[in-house]
TrEMBL record:
Organism field: Sander lucioperca (Pike-perch)
PANTHER family reported for this sequence: 17-BETA-HYDROXYSTEROID DEHYDROGENASE TYPE 2 (PTHR43313:SF3), SHORT-CHAIN DEHYDROGENASE/REDUCTASE FAMILY 9C (PTHR43313)
InterPro entries listed in its UniProt record: NAD(P)-bd_dom_sf, Sc_DH/Rdtase_CS, SDR_fam
Full protein name: Hydroxysteroid (17-beta) dehydrogenase 2
The keyword Oxidoreductase is assigned to this record: yes
Family listed: Belongs to the short-chain dehydrogenases/reductases (SDR) family.
Alphabetical UniProt keywords: Oxidoreductase
Signal peptide: none
Keyword Oxidoreductase: yes
Gene3D superfamilies, A to Z: NAD(P)-binding Rossmann-like Domain (3.40.50.720)
MF GO annotations: oxidoreductase activity
Amino acid sequence: MHTLHSHMCQFTSWALPGALEQGWILVSVFPSAGCDSGFGLALASRLSEAGLKVFAGVLDENGAGARRLREQGSQNLQVLQLDVTDDGQIETAHRHVHSQLHNTGLWGLVNNAGVLHCPADAELHPMAAYRLCVDVNFLSAVKMSQVFLPLLRRSRGRIVNMSSMAGDVAMPMLAAYGASKAALSVFSRVMRLELSVWGVTVVTIQPAGFRTSSRVLIGQWAVDEIVSAASSEAREDYGMAYISSLPGRLSQMSRQSAEDLSPVVDAVCHALLAARPKALYTPGRMGWFLPFLQRCCPARVFDAVIMALAGHSDCKPAPPCSSTPPQKNQILSSFSMKDTFDIKVPIL
């Protein structure tokens, strides 16, 4: 656990001169109902404890996460009702932030909102799941950036976008989530080029697997949604036993994910305050290695590695006998990769 003194020593050792007094930082915390942890909450707490001024935008201002932030009793922290998919709430938050800045400008915007639908094959993901992931994980960051950029230009501040390794490396079961994060990563790179003329810095955080409070939509209703959206042919080909097993994949993913969020929080703090922030941060186990391996390996070899690391459950789809695909063991044996890549990796 970091103490207030260690936070201040850490920041002041490398922070941009005057950055701690430059202006407010708006963090999109966006916890799900009843949640009191995650990147956004940990970051807002860390920054406010270190003496920085923070607006913490939350999905539910009466939720456990918002209450936890208020209980800190910090004069540097303001909790705002902010559903980043609601244009009206974004505009209301903008008016409030603008009224508090007194012409000093907004130093930082952290787009951290995220949602993960029930893990499922891309064919089985309902279109509603794709739209939700795109709305929350990508379009919300676009809207927030457009609304708050005039204030960021005034201070030549920073935009930090929370992407994911799944937006760079294709991960089975995460098509909707990964595609939305890939869009965010490309948006960030384009904005980094375009806004450099204004002196505004845009940074992408691309974590590997961490156990966070991103809104996760699972349960029997998710299975029912998948079943109702899938074609009759898909339901028959995959089988109900396989479809019903999909929510259990999240538990498997969670077990492979790191509980300590400090590498991500440290990366965001550095991105916000360092004199020379990186364009891309890849905190977490395999955060840099898997994207590097993907660029260096032949596609068939890397596909076999990812399928092994993804750790699919024993419950498999039930395709028609005439179109039975090769089993995972057969694919792996053709490359003799089992001994070489005998590792476990989080897949978010």
